[in-house]
């Protein structure tokens, strides 16, 4: 049979099914079928009706070819679905026609990683606030602006602090008394005023006072705010600049809440950025924020990355590979799991061409495999192709789904 002929017959079958559904039983009336029991088949088994396995909802009272597919109608026996070995029975010829494929559930390793989207942000734990330690005024501001990238020790502004000058003069006067206790107390007062050790040492060495000080960046990074302006009067504790470090950055990944249980603090994460194709940036999960987004139903996973050379810039987009370590799991092909919305079911092969539905609890998915957490034992055979037809037939015959607690 050519592919064109086969496709034409498939279309004809589907069209016929639609006409049956819309015709309010027209085909039933024309074929003269009945739900009444008919003659006994081979071996004395009573035949209830005949049916096409591809369209099990349609019943016929006589054998023959299916009006839907190019195949013989199958008999439905009265003793099917009851007795010692309940299940859906399919003979070998029909199994081949239906394309039924059976796979054994087996232990294996499921890829634990999955990809989510994220973006680079500043490390909010690496922030420096530059303030005036004493009242005074700004003499000079160096050529800086918000957004500039600066190194550690970069001068920001020159300040004139009159209170420092008077305190240094007092310290030198006490020092001349050559009383160690008083000298140590005066020196400690300079420290409490926020005077750096380098400035105090210079006063000790030169014997000269000076209230002038150059404020420098305590860390390298990006100037976020710059409030220092030449001639401005300063109050104690007034903020002159805010600097965000670039030695490390955060990669904030949007984790779907359904996968929240697969990520833990301390796990390895890998980010790939469109700006650097073919390069991977490896870090660790440092936090999983406690609040989920109401709009996207995602959690924010914070990954800390080393930023060598400052190449990673806040705002850059990244694809983040998250997940835990690979663990052994009982696996079946993902297409073998029938998800009804309220539970998951697989069709078990019971031998002698018989099949029976069983409820399972499905876990993670990856690489075309699904983890079975409960309801299935290693070595049990499940239907990986054609299972929906078998499930439909099982529903028609009223077969009871094997419960979870009855699994081997």
Number of domains: 4
Quote the beta fraction.
35-45%
Largest sheet: 7 strands, antiparallel
Structural class: alpha+beta
- Mean pLDDT, nearest integer? 80
Q: What's the level 1 CATH class of the largest domain? A: Mainly Beta
Number of helices: 7
Low-confidence stretches: 1-38, 81-85
E-strand count: 26
The radius of gyration over CA amounts to 39 Å
What is the level-2 CATH architecture name of the largest domain? Beta Barrel
As a percent range, the share of helical residues equals: 10-25%
Shape: rod-shaped
Q: Please name the fourth-level CATH homologous superfamily of the largest domain.
A: RNA polymerase II/Efflux pump adaptor protein, barrel-sandwich hybrid domain
Give me the CATH fold name of the largest domain: OB fold (Dihydrolipoamide Acetyltransferase, E2P)
What report would you give on this structure?
With 408 residues, the protein is of the alpha+beta class. The protein folds into four domains: 3-79, no CATH class; 101-109 and 327-406, conserved putative lor/sdh protein from methanococcus maripaludis s2 fold (Beta Barrel), CATH 2.40.420.20; 114-124 and 246-322, Efflux pump adaptor protein, beta barrel domain (Elongation Factor Tu (Ef-tu), domain 3); 128-244, OB fold (Dihydrolipoamide Acetyltransferase, E2P), CATH 2.40.50.100. It has helices spanning 3-22, 26-31, 92-98, 162-175, 180-192, 197-206, 387-397, and strands spanning 47-52, 55-60, 74-77, 88-89, 101-104, 106-109, 114-122, 127-131, 136-141, 149-150, 155-160, 212-216, 221-226, 233-234, 239-245, 248-256, 268-273, 280-292, 298-306, 317-322, 328-333, 338-339, 344-351, 354-366, 369-374, 381-385. The strands form six sheets. Strands 4, 6, 21, 22, 23, 24 and 25 form a seven-stranded antiparallel β-sheet that branches. A six-stranded antiparallel beta barrel has the order 7-16-19-18-17-20. A four-stranded antiparallel β-sheet has the order 8-15-13-10, with no helix packed on it. Strand 18 (280-292) and strand 19 (298-306) form a beta hairpin. Helix 4 runs antiparallel to helix 5. It starts with a helix and ends in an 11-residue tail after the last helix.
């Amino acid at each position: 049979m050519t592919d064109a002929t086969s496709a034409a017959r498939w279309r004809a079958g589907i069209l016929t099914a639609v006409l049956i559904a819309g015709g309010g039983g027209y085909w039933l009336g024309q074929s003269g079928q009945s739900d009444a029991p008919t003659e006994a088949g081979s071996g004395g088994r009573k035949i209830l009706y005949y049916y096409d396995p591809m369209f099990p909802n349609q019943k016929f009272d006589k054998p023959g070819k299916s009006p839907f597919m190019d195949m013989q109608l199958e008999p439905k026996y009265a003793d099917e679905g009851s007795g010692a070995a309940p299940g859906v029975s399919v003979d070998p010829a029909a199994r081949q026609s239906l394309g039924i494929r059976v796979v054994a559930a087996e232990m294996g390793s499921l890829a634990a990683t999955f990809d989510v989207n994220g973006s680079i942000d500043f490390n909010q734990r690496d922030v420096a606030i530059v303030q005036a330690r004493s009242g005074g005024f700004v003499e000079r501001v160096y050529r800086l602006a918000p957004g500039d990238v600066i190194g550690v020790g970069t001068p920001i502004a020159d300040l004139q602090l009159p209170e420092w000058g008077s305190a240094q003069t007092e310290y030198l006067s006490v020092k001349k008394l050559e009383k160690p206790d008083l000298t140590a107390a005066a020196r400690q007062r300079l420290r409490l005023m926020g005077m750096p050790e380098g400035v105090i040492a210079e006063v000790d060495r030169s014997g000269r006072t000076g209230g002038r000080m150059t404020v420098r960046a305590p860390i390298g990074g990006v100037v976020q705010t710059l409030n220092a302006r030449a001639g401005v009067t300063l109050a104690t504790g007034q903020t002159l600049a805010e600097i965000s470090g670039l030695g490390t950055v955060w990669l904030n990944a949007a984790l779907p809440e359904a996968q929240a249980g697969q990520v833990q603090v301390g796990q390895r994460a890998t980010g790939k950025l469109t700006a650097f194709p073919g390069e991977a940036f490896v870090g660790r999960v440092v936090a999983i924020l406690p609040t989920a987004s109401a709009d996207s139903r995602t959690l924010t996973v914070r990954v800390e990355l080393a930023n060598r050379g400052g190449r990673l810039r806040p705002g850059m987009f990244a694809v983040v590979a998250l997940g835990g370590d690979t663990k052994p799991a009982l696996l079946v092909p993902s297409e073998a799991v029938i998800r009804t919305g309220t539970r998951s079911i697989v069709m078990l092969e019971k031998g002698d061409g018989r099949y029976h539905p069983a409820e399972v609890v499905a876990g993670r998915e990856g690489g075309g495999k699904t983890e079975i957490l409960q309801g299935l034992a290693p070595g049990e055979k499940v239907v990986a192709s054609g299972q929906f037809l078998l499930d439909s037939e099982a529903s028609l015959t009223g077969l009871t789904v094997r419960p979870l607690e009855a699994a081997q």
